[in-house]
Amino acid sequence: MVLTWDQDPRELYPGIKIGESVRSLVSDQLIEHTDEIRSREGEFPEANIRALADCGLLGMKTPPEYGGLGLDTLNVTYAIEQIARVAPATAFVLLLHTLTCNRLAGAGTEEQKRKYLPRISCETLGASAWSESGVGADKSVLNTKAYRENGVWHLSGQKAFCTGAGHAGVYMVMTDTTEGKGFFLVADDNPALRIGAPMDSMGLQGTHSGALSLDNALVPDSDRVGEPGQIGPIINLDMQSGLHSGIVATGIALGTFGRLLDIVKANNSFEKYESVRVRVSQLASSLSVMRTHAYALAAMASLPAQSRPPTEAATMSAKLFLSESALQMTTDAIAIAGKSGYLRENGLERLHRDALGIVIAAPINGQILGSIGESLRQTDRSSHLYKV
Length: 388
Description:
Largest sheet: 8 strands, mixed
Helix content: 40-55%
Strand content: 5-15%
CATH topology of the largest domain: Butyryl-CoA Dehydrogenase, subunit A, domain 3
Distance between the termini: 37 Å
């Protein structure tokens, strides 16, 4: 099924049940990330996150028995795209939070799910602390260490690029152990947890991605997720879900195109110059392809497990394609709008920086390309995006 650039996906996908609530939230409650308030660009969108919690959207993928909505990927994709259209940083925080909830729901023990899922599905954020400075996207070498003693794990080290650092109630931390890589749940009230200042980044500043350090944090074995040395299947839950940051990129492209149309119509250049009409029409076609791709994958990932084809490779390819396409969309939109696009007051410049942030968000596009190349090189056509 093919979506046009401005079509409501609900016309083609009746399985989207939260359309009205999301549309109302976006139009009436969310604070738009525009350059009219660029002096506040680095502020964490607390009001937006509270609005999401009030609507139940923090628990989109969480099963109802743990306080969530139990929605499929199609509904989550719709919510993320529509929110990213006006507030990319808010959408990015929501996406990573949702992936954290999905991992815990899929791999956590019953005790962990009852202890943490109601909290991060109704009240506060869940965040993931995986990456570290100096190793980039490579998870095979971690300086954060954990060792077990008398049923308690001791965690020490520093994480970087943790989205929502300082605003989450629970962190899923990846560490190295003597038994292999492991995942641990660290609550925000752990006395050994320290939160650093947010990165002064080009784009997506409102995500407050920053450093998180652990100084001999004591974590009971009951808060270990999965078995050390066997976390690959937990990571794979992300790719199986069909959720990826390319959905945020699609929302950025949608918002960019809408602003561009407003600018060229206000300047009357759409009427006066055929070249403008042609170039804008090309972007409309590109946006149609992007949205069609995003929703086709979402629909596939939402099929019942017994009839669902593998989605791992498609999920990563979608992140690559959609983020690169959004970056090109924002670049072209600025050029077409001319001076109006170059001035910060019209917001295209900020959307361009946000789109670039999605390109380098984990898994970074270079890593995806490397994995695709490796899968083509290997006889069995298989590779793993994370070296764990």
